[in-house]
Amino acid sequence: MTGPVPELEDRAAACADRLCEADRVLLASHIDADGLTSAAIAAQALERADLPFETVFEKQLDETAIAAIAETDYETVLFTDFGSGQLDVIGDYEDADAFTPVIADHHQPADRETEYHLNPLLFGIDGASELSGAGASYVLARALAEASDGTTTGVAADGGTAVESTESHPRADNRDLAALAVVGAVGDMQASGGELHGANANIVEEGVDAGVLETGTDLAIYGKQTRPLPKLLEYATDVHIPGISNDQAGALRFLEDLDLELKRDGEWRRWSGLTGEEKQVVASALVKRAVSRGVPAHKIDGLVGTSYTLAREPVGTELRDASEFSTLLNATARYERADVGLAVCLGNRDGALERARSLLRNHRRNLSAGIDLVTSEGVTNEEHLQWFHAEDRIRETIVGIVAGMALGNDGINRSKPIFAFATKTDDGAESGDEDPAEVKVSARGTHSLVRQGLDLSVVMSEASRVVGGDGGGHDVAAGATVPAGEESTFIERADEIVGEQLS
Ligand code: C5P
Ligand code: C5P
Ligand code: C5P
Ligand code: ZN
């Protein structure tokens, strides 16, 4: 049978076979929505294959983190959503027989190879827009089901097809894990023009077949499951609708003027609870309003997109919508509570959802305060980029999200990439302790800049190397750590590189 991403199938099978040879596996993953869903997919696949494992999360897979992994007595380490960019360091440990790495990642690989390396970029698939870490982990999970399945259910004599029908057993073939893969892709902002593309689209299809995902054309606004209607519209700012976006009274008036019963028991209803007809009425009134206020047609198109609904999650919860689910996960892992996010992914074990929701309230406050800070203080413009330094006023783990969300606000032009510095917090120390010797820098661009040649992954790795730092990522979003005090040298070099890329 063919895997969800044919180009990756052989490599995935090799990785799966190697995992099946292990007595036990150390699973190491990244602390964001994509990293958490990667870990949740891998964890379930390992469990179903009867492979004992333990999970660890890292903010950054730096030399210290890799050394600590090598210190454990695990002989097989599965890295998800990172590992490729650190192959130079990992390779040294492999050569010294410290452990065998198996990697399911989508970041730009370092200049070194290893045998069990599953990364879309090695096979001509774009790791920034066509497959996420969770997607790579899903491809591996599907191969693991095949590899471990061969021994339990046998193989048909005509060569290759498993005896069990895959149609009736989405769980046995791990296709049910496609829903988490889609949450990871959406969390890494891989959807563009309103939908997922390429290998991601194949995974969506498998999830729909397995009954864990539903797709539909719907309003492309964040919060369809959980936000009361007036808040949904007031906070929807990706497409600015005059008199509604960022306008509490205006959003209320707009809804009250519609001939619909949008309140129930005195409470505003939510988009997810509306009937198809009610949605139609609200959506066309919104479009009409946008048109009458002169919003250009191509922007209005952005109001509608493909929604990815997790069919088995309860209506009206964050878990039902891929985009809200991913934000909920970021709210845990980026605040040192990856355990909570993982438990949510694994089926809300031990009331994890309630804890995640309280972390989410805190995350929202921080995002909103961060965006206010950047917008009010403004950015410094260089010739080809813009930047700000948040010091310790924005957490380094969310400064990139804030920078991305602020792009396009007053005074923050979408025609240049944005670079954001924040004081680095020390991993080993109490939370809140800072390491004044190092600064985190996050960069975000737009798809349109990428089409013009921008590659922030290259900018980050080259400009940070000049000052003795380290960085990488994707063309549209990347990060680095640089020594404190070197910010201006770094920016100077980054500005030159961006200039060369866009020329
Ligand atoms: O490490 P990882 O690949 O998971 O992180 C990707 C990051 O890039 C996410 O924080 C995501 O929000 C960001 N991103 C973005 N805009 C894009 C693509 C990704 O801000 N178009
Ligand atoms: O936090 P995360 O990176 O997952 O956010 C992804 C996107 O979701 C943001 O760029 C933003 O457009 C939207 N979002 C939002 N309100 C929030 C959190 C996220 O609109 N409170
Ligand atoms: O941390 P931030 O959200 O800005 O990260 C953006 C992207 O850059 C992520 O994909 C992350 O894994 C990557 N990154 C990296 N090396 C760093 C920092 C971030 O590859 N030192
Ligand atoms: Zn990722």
From TrEMBL:
Gene3D superfamilies linked: 3.10.310.30, 3.90.1640.30
Segment forming the signal sequence: none
Residue ranges of the region described as Disordered: 151-171
Protein name in the entry: Recombinase RecJ
Listed InterPro entries: DDH_dom (IPR001667), DHH_CID (IPR048515), DHH_sf (IPR038763), DHHA1_dom (IPR003156), SSDNA_exonuclease_RecJ (IPR051673)
Domain DDH: 25-140
GO molecular function, one term: exonuclease activity
Domain DHHA1: start-end pairs: 393-499
Regions of compositional bias (Low complexity) in chain numbering: 151-163
